[in-house]
Amino acid sequence: MTAKAFYLQLALVTLIAAATAFGINTFPQFADVQPIAWISLGIFVLLSVVMYYAGRKAAFSDNKHDFTNVSLGVTIGKIFIAILFILGYNQLMQPDSRFFIIPFFLMYLIYTIFETYIMMKLGRLNTPTDQKE
């Protein structure tokens, strides 16, 4: 998968995530937590870019376990970041309701599906011609 193809797909997924954020922010229950959807969207875009380049490098590594290690590291890292984000937001902002979790986990779900798809594509790369961008 070329970087161009990755960024085009990332743009499409981000457009879907932004439409989801706009849609959920129209409900009054989410009026106070609108920024969390946008902040989490930005975080997951950055994580997707990091995941792509780490996964791409690992896919062509001489060590056959590097790709598995990167995949596992990305998964555990995202879970850890998600927990820290939720706990940090809850502690700092002390929201009146727990509705703030819904926009965050919608973004988490969208980008996790996307990253799984990308990692599956990267896992199939194994020839020097696949490395061309």
Number of domains: 1
The ordered string of helix (H) and strand (E) elements is HHHH
* Count of extended strands: 0
Overall pLDDT level = 91
Helix content range: over 70%
Largest beta-sheet details? none
* Alpha plus pi helix count: 4
Q: What separation lies between the terminal Cα atoms?
A: 8 Å
Question: What does this protein look like?
Answer:
74% of the residues lie in helices and 0% in strands. The protein is built from 4 helices and no strands. The protein has 133 residues and is an all-alpha fold. It has helices at 3-24, 34-59, 66-93, 101-123. The relative contact order is 0.19. The model has no long low-confidence stretch (mean pLDDT 91). Helix 1 packs antiparallel against helix 4 (101-123) and helix 3 (66-93) runs antiparallel to helix 4. It has one domain (3-25, 33-125).
Please describe the topology of this protein:
Elements: H1 3-24, H2 34-59, H3 66-93, H4 101-123
Helix pairs in contact: 1-2, 1-4, 2-3, 2-4, 3-4
Task: Please name the defining characteristics of this protein.
single chain, 133 residues, mainly alpha, transmembrane helix, membrane, transmembrane
Summarize the structure.
By secondary structure, this protein is an all-alpha fold. Helices cover 74% and strands 0% of the residues.
